[in-house]
Structures are given as C-alpha cells and as structure tokens.
Write a sequence for this structure.
C-alpha cells in the first residue's frame, strides 16, 4: 500500500510520499537483466526522442504520485510520467529524496503523451 503525505520544500508545495509495493520478483528480474544486458543509463531528454517500446534505464527521483499507478520522475534534463504497477515495486519503499534507477520501456500514446512503463525500480 502506498502512503502519501504533503510537505513544503524551500517554500514550494509539493506532494511527497514513501512509495512502496509488495513482492520482490521485479527486482530479481532487473538483476537478471543487468547481468545479461549491458544497457546504458539515458536521460529523460533522450527518452523523449526514443521510439515506442524502446527499453530504457533512467536515474533520478520520484517527485510525486499522480494517480493509482502514475508517478512523476525527474532527472537533470526534465520530468516524465512513469507507470509503476504494484508488482513492480519489489517491496521497495522510496521517498522523493532517494535516487532511484528505473528499468522500463518507452510508452508513446500519440506524439504528445510519452511515459515509461516501469518493469523494475531500485534505490541507488
């Protein structure tokens, strides 16, 4: 179950939370993929230029939850929406101050709607 709380950072109101989910299969799958695939970490800016279904690894911060499985992710180049299903959390609890590594694929719903469908997440 996800917990949501509101707090202010430097006078700007933002939604922060401790994001968590059940299970650990996603993180096991991610570790297997890390050993079998030597993919490079890309930026949000690079993700925006990639075709649909491209596999990606991004590093940054989960800023807030947007909906049931929707989250806002930020790195040094910008923000993008992530879809993280409950089973993809792998039992991990994450706050907006925790740097995370996200494994997933680009999901394009038209030209303007781009998000990353997450398959695994880990703290860095």
């Amino acid at each position: 179950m996800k917990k949501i709380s509101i707090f202010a950072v430097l006078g700007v109101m933002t939604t922060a939370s401790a994001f968590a989910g059940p299970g650990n299969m996603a993180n096991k799958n991610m570790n297997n993929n890390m050993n079998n695939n030597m993919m490079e970490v890309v930026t949000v800016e690079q993700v925006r230029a990639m075709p649909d279904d491209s596999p990606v690894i991004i590093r940054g911060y989960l800023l807030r939850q947007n909906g049931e499985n929707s989250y806002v992710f930020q790195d040094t180049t910008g923000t993008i929406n992530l879809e993280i299903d409950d089973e993809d959390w792998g039992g991990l609890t994450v706050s907006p101050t925790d740097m995370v590594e996200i494994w997933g694929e680009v999901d394009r719903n038209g030209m303007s709607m781009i998000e990353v469908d997450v398959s695994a997440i880990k703290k860095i």
